[in-house]
Target: Delta(3)-Delta(2)-enoyl-CoA isomerase
Amino acid sequence: MAASGIKVISPWRLFRFVRASQVFRIPGVQLHTTGALMGASVEDFNNAKAQLGTLKKDPGNHVKLKIYALFKQATQGPCNTPKPGMLDFVNKAKWDAWKSLESVSQEEARQQYVDLIKSLVSAEGPAVATPPPESAQAFQSLLVTTEDGITTIRFNRPEKKNAITLDMYKELIDALHHAGKDDSVITVMTGSGDFYCSGNDLNNFTGIPQGGIEKMAKDSGELLKHYVKAYIDFPKPLIAVVNGPALGVSVTVLGLFDVVYATESATFHTPFSQLGQSPEGCSSYTFPKIMGNAKASEMLLFNKKVTATEACNLGLVTEVFPDGSFQSEVWTRLKAYAKLPPKSLALSKQLIRSKEKEKLHAVNDAEVERLIERWLSDECMQAIMNFFQAKPKL
Ligand SMILES: CCCCCC/C=C/C(=O)SCCNC(=O)CCNC(=O)[C@H](O)C(C)(C)COP(=O)(O)OP(=O)(O)OC[C@H]1O[C@@H](n2cnc3c(N)ncnc32)[C@H](O)[C@@H]1OP(=O)(O)O
Model:
């Protein structure tokens, strides 16, 4: 977004409407021209620029072009840059818009800019304090933000290495559903603190609820199924920014992400047999597909912990970055991805995913069925007791 508030717009749409009308008449917006020659102050101008960012409704490309042209005229005077080529639709339209104002003085352009923004703000009606989205308010163990076209879902229990509690699974499902529908272009998952995520919170299996242990296993199975489903069906590009060690279910679902970036010191560990459990997150299907049976078995059967570089060589991780520059390099790249055309990205992702959605749902169902049995097994109960008694590190 430039200082004028102009977003990148589809060249084809822009081309069509600019050809249709070179005259800026803006339907639905009453221009309060307070007299161009009076001249708005620099402060008014700066306030208007700030107000532009608070508009809730997209004013449309036509108006955005007008805003752009007035901004340029007000700040730089008449258009003095070479005319872009005919096929450079966006820049050509912007250039034409600016050029068309060459007889307007800078002071007058400033006033028109202020008037136009005022009109747009008043057309939106009185400012009502909008509460943050429901999901953003409700989260206890996640930090969810949307900025620069990126919705970031951050595991946020650093004191427990971001282990996932039962409530946190529900929050993650909500956050993913919300991110799938919001106006962000890509969604990113990452962790607070030094871990990406230590997987399932082992306390999830310690209290025996009313209804007994069988009901607990069945309910947990349902929750896990919905959790994994949210990844299988996620409609936009989903990117993991693995900022530290990752364990268990936070690793297995990585096979359902579109891109996985990892810091050099991250590790990937799926210690299921050690815990008397079995793979989930569709990893019994995605891991062999990604890395071949032999390597997948080392991870899923024999608890092999792999480094970020090893995970990259196996194909589970897309790229590894040095610890020192991880955040800056990755976020620069993600911000650039978020400027790509959203529909094209989502549709391309869906084409890739649609080929195996049915298969993935079937795998999820089968894995959950097996896990419900496992959670009731002596092997699993013993492993969890061991963790809390002796606290052996995985
Ligand atoms: C609806 C249910 C779906 C279930 C899906 C099936 C999912 C399966 C899995 O995800 S399997 C993997 C489960 N994860 C683990 O077994 C990890 C257990 N934790 C550890 O081994 C270690 O804590 C560690 C290696 C992650 C980190 O070690 P270290 O750096 O030495 O830190 P601490 O151990 O001191 O940890 C700090 C604090 O956090 C607590 N904690 C960390 N991870 C978990 C966890 N997964 N479950 C519960 N608690 C966890 C740890 O106990 C410490 O707590 P304390 O400060 O002592 O109160």
Notes: The chain has 16 helices and nine strands.
